[in-house]
Amino acid sequence: EGAPATTGAVPGAATRGKWLVLDELDRAKADKALGGLSTFLGGLPLTLPGGEEVKPPEDWRVVATAASPLNASPALTRRFAHVEVPFPGESDVGALLEHAAGGDHAAANAAERLVALRELRPLGAGVFIAAAAYAAERNAIEPADERTLAREAFTVYVEPLLAGLD
């Protein structure tokens, strides 16, 4: 049931009435990946290679995440509403890290030490949440002090995101 295999992910999802989630769209060449579908994303019909015409349903959406603005043509960029998700407040960050660390206070504190690095580059909360979960798993396997956990989580999760800084 649904669209033929040759339809492609975007029109195929629309044909099935399933929203499409594109994670880290800023890492792709957006115009190359989606540029040919710009009018379809704007709600106009698309003719498939077999001659069949598909049109996205009115309530169909593409939801994309991006850590930085898209490097895309204005035609494609305007097909998306842009919503900036602010970094959580201090108490919310603490609660998120505690939850991600499964109650391991040393792991949560290790990840919280890394939050100050946002001054160097605007990093989202997800990297720190992943660091807290990593630190908790690592601490469960072989207990370590908070500083060691922070250093290891930094190396794996944060340092690669700081590439290119002086």
List the helices and strands and how they pair.
Blueprint: H1 9-15, E1 20-22, H2 30-34, H3 38-41, E2 46-47, E3 53-54, E4 62-64, H4 74-77, H5 90-100, H6 105-114, H7 125-141, H8 146-158
Q: Can you describe this structure?
A:
- This protein has 166 residues and is mostly helical.
- The chain has helices spanning 9-15, 30-34, 38-41, 74-77, 90-100, 105-114, 125-141, 146-158; strands at 20-22, 46-47, 53-54, 62-64.
- The strands form 2 sheets. The protein has a two-stranded parallel ribbon.
- A hairpin with a 5-residue loop joins strand 2 and strand 3.
- Helix 5 (90-100) packs parallel to helix 7 and helix 6 crosses helix 8.
- It is elongated.
- The termini are far apart.
- The model has no long low-confidence stretch (mean pLDDT 90).
Summarize the structure.
The protein is mostly helical. Helices cover 43% and strands 6% of the residues.
Order of helices and strands: HEHHEEEHHHHH
Radius of gyration over alpha carbons?
Answer: 21 Å
Strand order of the largest sheet: 1-4
- Counting helices, strands and paired strands, the structural category is mainly alpha
Number of helices: 8
Number of strands: 4
**Assembly state:** single chain
